[in-house]
Design brief:
about 230 residues; MetI-like fold; 11 helices; mainly alpha; globular
Length: about 230
């Protein structure tokens, strides 16, 4: 049976990851569509910026979030002054860090799925009088569902495992920001807590593996459903 400490860390991780993916999905679809369908100066720069969190050390991502979204940051101070919204040392900040780190995986999966859609189908619909929005909602989006589902689940799994950016941006606060990786780190630092750390390691592996299996299953179902 899971202990109360393990359940708390697991539930917080699930909440943080769900919120991160939920708020990443709309901009992820938009950015993926722009990168797939529109040619413009600076497209390579935008593509590189989107994928930057994949190659940057997570601690650097956390530090950039701290100086920009913290209470004294350029954006964070404005949000706190006008809306009373603070990401520092809160689960919302952990969700923001997870969203930033997992965003490239989401965009890449959706973009690859968009690239696989035959543009002639969209052009045919446009010539028949359908608006760009209607074409996207009725043709493009349904055909990208497999990639959309795969990207969503992969981003969720990546959010579950996020550590470096989270601990740098929002610290390691019990019941506030202590997700599964941070809880495991706390046990590793505690003498004689190797068994507890091993249990959390097994839980993390089980959650990640279940996410990957779910991604594969959803992708197969979507391909059958939408052809």
């Amino acid at each position: 049976m899971l202990t109360e400490y393990e359940i708390s860390a697991l539930l917080l991780s699930l909440k943080v990851s769900s919120v991160a993916v939920l708020f990443s999905l709309p901009p992820g679809i938009l950015i993926a569509w722009i990168l797939s369908r529109i040619e413009f100066p600076g497209k390579s720069l935008l593509d590189g910026f989107v994928h930057l969190p994949l190659v940057l050390p997570p601690v650097v991502v956390g530090y950039l979030l701290l100086i920009s979204m913290g209470k004294q940051g350029a954006i964070g101070s404005w949000l706190y002054s006008w809306f009373g919204l603070s990401f520092s040392f809160s689960w919302q900040g952990a969700a923001l860090a997870a969203a930033v780190v997992s965003f490239p995986l989401l965009v890449r999966a959706i973009r690859l799925s968009l690239d696989a859609v035959d543009s002639k189908l969209e052009q045919a619909a446009r010539t028949l009088g359908a608006s760009r929005t209607k074409v996207f909602l009725t043709i493009t989006l349904p055909l990208t569902v497999p990639g959309l589902l795969a990207g969503t689940v992969l981003a969720f799994a990546r959010s579950i495992g996020e550590f470096g950016a989270t601990i740098t941006f929002v610290a390691n606060i019990p019941d506030q920001t202590r997700t599964l990786p941070l809880a495991m780190f706390s046990f590793i630092e505690t003498p004689g807590a190797e068994a507890e750390a091993a249990r959390l390691c097994i839980i993390s592996i089980a959650v990640a593996l279940a996410s990957l299996m779910l991604s594969e299953w959803l992708t197969r179902r979507a391909k059958k459903r939408f052809g």
